Amino acid sequence: MSEPRVRRAEIAVEQAHVDRVYTRLAELRAQAEAMRAKGYELGQGAQREAIFEQASMLFERDMMVYHANQTLQTLDAEYEGLVFGRLDHRDRERIYVGRLGIRDTEFDNLVTDWRAPAAAAFYQATAEEPMDVVRRRVIRCSGQNVLDVDDDVLIADAVPEDMQIVGEGALMAALGRARGEKMRDIVATIQKEQDEVIRAPWRGVTEITGGPGTGKTAVALHRAAYLLYRYRRQLGGAGVLVIGPSGVFTSYISRVLPSMGETNVELRALGEVLDGLEATRQDTSALAAVKGSLRMRKVLLRALRDTPPEAPDELRIVYRGEVLKLAGRELEKVRRKAHTQGAPPNRSRVRVAELLLAALADKAEEYAKADGKEIDRAELITDLGERIDFHRFLVVWWPVLYPAQVLKWLGEEKRLAAAAKGVLSRAEISLLAADFADRARGWSVADVALLDELRVLVGPEPKRRRRQTVVEVEPDRTGGGTPHRPEHYDEYSHVVVDESQDLSPMQWRMVGRRGKYASWTVVGDPVQSSWPDPGEAAQARDQAFGTKTARRRYTLRTNYRNSAEIFELAAKVVTGHAQAEELPAAVRTTGIAPEVRPVDAAALATATQAAVKELLGAVEGTVGVITAMDRVGEVSGWLSGQADERLKVVGSLDSKGLEYDAVVLVEPMELVTESSTGRRVLYVALTRATQHLIVLASDPDWLPAS
Ligand SMILES: Nc1ncnc2c1ncn2[C@@H]1O[C@H](COP(=O)(O)OP(=O)(O)OP(=O)(O)O)[C@@H](O)[C@H]1O
């Protein structure tokens, strides 16, 4: 038979199996629906029964409805591309691999879940170690229709006469397909080195490094799905947290886990880790470097121990006709004493009242002694402690502290200078004070870690005020919080941190608090780091991991995103900033070289418009325009006439983790100069494109002479 006829015949073979699978799926769906309906019926019946039976029937109803809903949700999530692989073993046994395990009515496997041990050979078998697999087949479907098949022969001399082999390279075909707005799952084409990481043991800390496009994000997400499948009992209840660099990024990856039927995972951007906040604004790199530094802990601690701006500077209270007065210095002595006892101020209010009453009693004793009298100390303390004017004083002198309010105080340069004495430089103090004073812009991503640190330092708000959140806004977690978890939940069983090379030490502390009891998967690429002090960040990261001793490291070495032509250009900008072994190998050549276009600065707008038009015509998928952070608004304005939902304008830092079919990079030199780690940020920007890259540059210095 000719190759197209063989292919058609093989597609028909697989279509027959896929049809059986979907017929069975429809039966399972119908069963789950019937169970749900029965559950509701039971609930109706409960209303007519005695109270005890009612309770147990309602419980049973809830369980039935819950399980039925879970099943329906999973069946629906896995519908698309349900079957994607087939293994033919040497002993002629064959298994189909898919997103979900399905058995027929005889309990024979129609599909094996990709996470099950029996499916591991689909990813791990190679020609060198075939694991008894003669042929591995990737089946590509759209809905219930088989579109194509692609085979790898792993034991050439064991291929039986009647086995047909079709196509080559399911991976290359997958990589060549157009990119959409959301990341795709890679479950059908996971590579061996990736599979090892996905299936690594769950305990302890798993670190994954690798250059751009090596699949770190894809692997981390598949690992989360795998761990929840294999260790649901240990990990499922407490939940898994995935941290990404930005909201744009978390939205980009948001489809991957639900498409694998996983809903028990919470995705949060770094600006959303603290409940009640969704910060997206990025600080300048100089400001972010100060805010992220561990030195800020000391500054914050001193700031909250300072006298609140509204605090009265003396306490006067009349007791039995005599005015008792504590002057400013005496009050400050009490404040210092209360703070040195170490409890968070919001927890010390009773202790502070006791200290103030003791100071008043000392004062009264002093006066009485001068008059040759005696006082009943205990009685005085009880009497004054019940007085309304004493409590009025207390609430303004030792108010409940809110993190947002303490940070705002630091907008006053004098106050910040006092808190930062010997810790920050004068220039850093001025920079920070000016930023905190300008509150109209809302919190930045780096501020969130400071607010979280303060949340812990000030302690919980007293119960009756509990409804107010630490940031004085009502929580609005449309971005994906889980309502059933308590506020500031810190009991996740597993935490995944993506783009981890960019977490500041303060951000590591914030994330570490959420993972006190967790095992970790940490994904990053030091060469893409935009954080200026990796040593300090590493120390904070180790602290976040706590005492977990099991540590395993993996390196991914193949760049699946960029064409070899694009990556060759990108690698040039980090020459001297990275070791050769830190750069991955891009294996896909497209024959399309990236274009560097010298442009006059005055003609940048028209050049950008022209490049965008060209690329929208050249690719089916997305086109990204990447600029320096403070140019995003301007460049978006240039392109307002070219509305196309495939087109996105994004700032350098926000392009982390994303990818487009084609990229226009505007003024690369501005990315280099916008921060002290500019070359690395430029490297990130240059590695976002899968097929086409156009660089528009008025200044040629961005590209080192080779
Ligand atoms: N095994 C695979 N099969 C198909 N596609 C893959 C595979 N591995 C990675 N990819 C694709 O390669 C691209 C890059 O993957 P991913 O974004 O996870 O890389 P990354 O290492 O996180 O990159 P970066 O560090 O640049 O953000 C994605 O489109 C992903 O779907």
TrEMBL record:
Binding site for ATP: 210-217
An individual GO BP term: recombinational repair
Gene Ontology cellular component annotations, sorted alphabetically: cytosol
Keywords recorded for this protein, A-Z: ATP-binding, Helicase, Hydrolase, Nucleotide-binding
Keyword Nucleotide-binding belongs to the record: yes
Domain named UvrD-like helicase ATP-binding: residues: 189-563
UniProt region (Disordered), positions on chain: 467-488
Keyword Hydrolase: yes
Alphabetical list of PANTHER family matching this protein: DNA 3'-5' HELICASE, UVRD / RECB / PCRA DNA HELICASE FAMILY MEMBER
Protein name: UvrD-like helicase ATP-binding domain-containing protein
